[in-house]
């Protein structure tokens, strides 16, 4: 079976072939949803953003240029969507916090989170630690460590230089290590 | 408890459970393509739209500027005409005043007694060459 490249599928999509676009979705959906879930810590939200990203790619299919960079292009759109959603929700949280701070007596940790902490599951700690990382470190670290992307492709997603990506991955690792050290048991899970 | 190193982070991240897209993910996206109209237009067509918009905005701005200039010029001309009229009126008034005072003799009555009047006749004074008024007292430097 001959594997058709992403660019070829995009060219066919530009020519009006919807099956080609469906094939592109099938090819990238799982990895994209996995990346976005790790980024957003919410699978449903990740799936919504992934759908929006594919939709955006389709809507702007005419401006896509064939450079063998479809995946970075798709992930850049998805990351930007997530970033803009994060900004919106942060603004909303600040506004809501101003009104609910007095009524809400607890310290911001939900009961389920407290229970998880008590269980001491490293996986839960890891997910929380990832979520606590600033987006500029989270995105390159996950693409590098989980998706196994090259620094060049990550640089293309984040629209920055390779050196910047390397530095951010390194600093992201450091930050995660600092956050996880209290729960570290020598790598035995 | 051993110390965690940076190298331990990568394998730990790879151990995270992998999440998959839902089974109807592709169908849902394709379904949304039908409902949401494409916002993308061919670049040339978009360029034509931008050019047309720039042309319209430019024309409106130019017309507005020209009209404003024309209005300002009209107001300035009206004001100038008013000033000319006012000048002509003042000139006529001045001429009238001159004609009224031309017949008056420059004669001053300085006082006097029952038998004698002291009168200053300006015309005679002006006729004498080299005549000039001298103050009662003055200091020469």
Backbone shape of chain B? elongated
SSE series of chain A: HHHHHHHHH
End-to-end separation of chain A in angstroms reads 40 Å
The number of E-state strands of chain A comes to 0
Main sheet strand line-up of chain B? 1-2
**Helix coverage percent of residues of chain A?**
over 70%
Question: What would the CATH topology of the largest domain in chain A be?
Answer: Rna Polymerase Sigma Factor, Chain: A
Q: What share of the residues of chain A does DSSP label as strand, in percent?
A: under 5%
Work out the radius of gyration of chain A: 19 Å
> Would you tell me the overall average pLDDT of chain A?
81
- Radius of gyration of chain B from CA coordinates: 50 Å
Key features of this structure:
heterodimer, A: 189 residues, mainly alpha, Rna Polymerase Sigma Factor, Chain: A, Arc Repressor Mutant, subunit A, 2 domains, 9 helices, 0% strand, globular, B: 141 residues, two-stranded antiparallel ribbon, 4 helices, 58% helix, 8% strand, elongated
Can you describe this structure?
The complex is a heterodimer of chains A (189) and B (141). Chain A has helices at residues 6-14, 18-40, 43-59, 70-100, 111-119, 122-132, 135-145, 151-158, 162-180. By secondary structure, chain A is mainly α. Chain A folds into two domains: 1-96, Rna Polymerase Sigma Factor, Chain: A, CATH 1.10.1740.10; 114-182, Arc Repressor Mutant, subunit A, CATH 1.10.10.10. Mean pLDDT of chain A is 81; it is low at 101-111 and 114-120. In chain B, strands 1-2 form a two-stranded antiparallel sheet. Chain B has a domain at 41-102. Chain B has four helices and two strands; from the N terminus they run αααββα. At the A-B interface, helix 2, helix 3, helix 6, helix 7 and helix 9 of A face helix 1 and helix 2 of B.
């Amino acid at each position: 079976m001959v594997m058709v490249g992403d660019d070829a599928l995009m060219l066919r999509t530009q020519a009006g072939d919807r099956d080609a676009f469906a094939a592109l979705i099938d090819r990238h959906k799982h990895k994209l949803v996995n990346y976005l879930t790790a980024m957003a810590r919410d699978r449903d939200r990740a799936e919504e953003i992934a759908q929006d990203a594919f939709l955006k790619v389709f809507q702007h299919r005419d401006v896509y240029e064939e450079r063998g960079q479809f995946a970075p292009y798709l992930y850049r759109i998805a990351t930007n969507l997530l970033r803009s959603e994060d900004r919106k929700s942060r603004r909303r949280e600040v506004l809501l916090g101003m009104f609910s701070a007095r009524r809400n007596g607890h310290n911001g940790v939900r009961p389920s989170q407290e229970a998880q902490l008590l269980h001491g599951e490293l996986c839960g700690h890891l997910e929380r630690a990832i979520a606590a990382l600033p987006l500029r470190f989270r995105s390159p670290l996950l693409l590098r460590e989980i998706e196994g992307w090259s620094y060049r492709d990550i640089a293309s997603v984040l629209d920055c230089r390779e050196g910047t990506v390397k530095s951010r991955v390194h600093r992201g690792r450091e930050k995660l290590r600092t956050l996880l050290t209290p729960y570290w048991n020598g790598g035995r899970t | 408890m051993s110390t965690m190193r940076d190298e331990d982070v990568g394998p730990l991240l790879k151990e995270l459970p992998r999440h998959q897209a839902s089974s109807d993910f592709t169908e849902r996206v394709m379904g949304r393509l039908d409902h949401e109209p494409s916002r993308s237009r061919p670049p040339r067509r978009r360029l034509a739209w931008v050019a047309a918009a720039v042309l319209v905005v430019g024309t409106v701005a130019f017309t507005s500027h020209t009209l404003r200039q024309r209005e300002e010029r009209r107001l300035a001309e009206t004001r100038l005409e008013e000033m000319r009229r006012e000048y002509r009126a003042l000139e006529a008034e001045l001429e009238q005043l001159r004609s009224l005072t031309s017949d008056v003799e420059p004669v001053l009555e300085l006082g006097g007694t029952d038998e004698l009047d002291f009168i200053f006749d300006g015309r005679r004074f002006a006729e004498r060459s080299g005549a000039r008024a001298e103050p009662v007292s003055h200091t020469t430097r």
